[in-house]
Write a structure and sequence with these properties.
By secondary structure, the chain is an alpha+beta fold. It is about 40% helix and about 20% strand. The chain has a domain of about 80 residues: Arc Repressor Mutant, subunit A (Orthogonal Bundle), CATH 1.10.10. The protein is built from five helices and five strands. The strands form two sheets. A three-stranded antiparallel beta sheet has the order 1-2-3, covered by helices on one side. A hairpin with a 5-residue loop joins β4 and β5. α2 packs across α3. It is globular and about 30 Å long.
Length: about 120
Amino acid sequence: MRVLSNPYRTGFWLSRFDTLYMIPRISWFSSIDYQIWALFRDHDLIMSRKVLAANLDYDADYTGKRLRKLRDAGFLEQREDSLYQLSDLGRELLADNLSKEEIEALNPDSDDTDD
């Protein structure tokens, strides 16, 4: 799967064979996040940060940081053995069942508390 930049800058297209899938541009997503989604879309596997980093050609520490952020948002699950897998919410994202606003609201760094 290739990740193609969207010329309209509204998101990234995930290319699989002749089909394009859209994941909207999310303010708190990094470019590696779209590559992580592409990998999980093609391979619904359980993977370590090192395996993901090697397949994406990124540093393992940075990959781990992004995986933890996606985990904290609820898109990934981290097992007791530190391996990552898609959560039900992550599958919803890949199925295009979440709006951009819903995804933005899941930012784990957001401090939107009304307490």
